[in-house]
Amino acid sequence: LGPAALLGDDAALLPACSGRLLLASEGMDPGLLAKDPWFAGWCGVLVNLSDIAAMGGRPLALVNSLWCRGADRAEPVLAGLQAAAARFDVPVVGGHTNLNSPYDALAVAVLGSAAGAVLSARFARPGDRCFLLVNGAGRMRHPDRFWDAATQAAPELLRRQLALPAQLAEGGVVHAAKDISMGGLVGTAVMFCESAGCGLTLELEAITPPAGVALDDWLACFPSFGFLLAVAPQQEPALRAAVPAEGSEPALICQPIGRFTAEAGVRLRAGGGEETVWSGAEALTGFGPVPSG
Fold first, then answer.
1. Pair 236, 168: CB distance under 8 Å
2. Which of 76, 127, 150, 181 is deepest in the core (most CB within 10 A)?
3. What is the residue range of 61's domain?
4. What pTM value is reported for the model?
């Protein structure tokens, strides 16, 4: 694209692409920014890439807005951001930096594209099996309950895993997905069902945390690579064939953990008992299914 594509102009210049575009943004928790600025910069990239992947897309480019009380406070944030962008091979093409701010704040946005079907959470249907897809080779960062399976991982592994949801979408194996975010597995399940207008029964005994991790922490943590997938029963063999086998990629966990239902609400089932954690009667995000008609 020539010199006009370099940093320093008023807008980033990108090549045109076919298909549909995906756009996402995230503002970082000020507490994390104050406590661990490098990791906040890293997460600013990571959470955006997960949002694109959850929709069946591939990231194209990132921009950021960073306001800090001086260059010394901005440098570790930018270092974390640049490290993640390099590790995942997604360019940072612009943004805005203010080094004379009375406070510290970071927001990051990402542009992506979807070549195949889009994995909207609204596409989950009663009868679909819910699969958990997560990288289990990491460590828990307490007290944040962040499952970090990325900062020490090889770039090739991270890029290969990030591309997997798009491959599943393009192959028609998965038709709806949601990345596991700050709400943890259970909170994300609620947001998933609210968007789809259906319910979900989660089988806790089917969920196997990594060694040394308590189930409560695993259900509540924010994994660096973690998704809930809606899979039609006839596509389950295709999903198992598409996800690398345990022997070839032992870090990757892909396990059925529940089923979507016509009955609203999210229920946790274990030991013959069942508890409803969300009835569906009250909105959580307010972003429900598209009204029919």
1. no
2. 150
3. 3-8+17-114
4. 0.94
